[in-house]
Amino acid sequence: MDSEQSFPQPESKPPGRERPVLSAKLDAAFTSVYRVFAFLGRFFKELFRPPYEFNEIIRQCYDVGYKSLFLICMTAFITGLVFTKQSRPSLSNFGATSWLPSLVAIAIIRALAPLVTALICAGKVGSQIGAELGSMKVTEQIDAMEVSATNPFKFLVVSRILATTIMIPVLMCFFAGFGLWGSYVDVHSNESTSFTFFIEKAFEKINFMDIWTSVVKALVYGFTIGAVGCIRGYNAKQGTMGVGRAANSAVVISMFLIFIEEMLIVQIANVFR
User: Fold this and answer.
1) Chain-wide mean pLDDT for the chain?
2) Any idea where the domains of the chain sit in the sequence?
C-alpha cells in the first residue's frame, strides 16, 4: 500500500474571472436606474400631451380613494383612540392631561396621518396596481392595445399615477379627522371635555407649515406608490410568477421609499421652521 495518498486538487480559477460577473451586475444596476428615469420621463411627457383620459382618471380615483376610505377611517379612529389612551398615564404623572389634545394633534397631523395613510395604500393600492398591470403584461393585453392604435401607457400608467397622487392627500385628511375624533372620544369620556374646547386645544400648536408639510408628504407618497406599482407591473415578466413578484416588490419598494422620503422631508421642513 503506498504511503503517499493523492487527493484531487481544486481547480485553479484564472485571474480576473470574477470581474466580468461584477461588471455585469453593475451594468444591470445602471440599466435598471436608467429604465426607471426613462419611465418617469415618459410619464411627464404623456401627462401634458392630449388626448386626456378623464374618465379613466376618475375611475382610478374611485378605486384608490373610495374603496380605501373605510379602511383608512377605521384605522385612523383606532389610532387616535389608542394613542390618547397610551399617552394619558405619562401626562397624568405630571398633571398635564390638558395637553392631550395638542399632543395628539401634533402627532397625527405632522407625522401619523400622511405616513400611516401612505403605508396602508402602499399595501392595498400598490399591490393592486402591480398585479393588474403585471397580469395585463404577461397575457399580452398591453401589446394588443398598442396594435389597436391605443396608447396603453397614457391609459394605464398616467391615469393610475395621477389617481394615487390626487387621492392620497384626500385620504390623509380623512385620517387626520377621524384620528382626532377617536382622541376626542377618549378625552371626553375621561375629562368630559367639550368638542369646542378640544378642537381649540388641538389646533393651538398647529400652524400652516405643519399642514402644508403634511400635504407635500402625501403628494410625494402618492406619486411614489403609483409610480412604483406601475413600473413593476408594466415591466413584469415570467408569467404568473412575474405577476406575484410585481405585486410583492411594488409594496416592499414603495414602503422603503416612503420611509426614505419621510426622513428627507422632515429634515427639509425643520430647516424652514
Assistant:
1) 88
2) 40-272
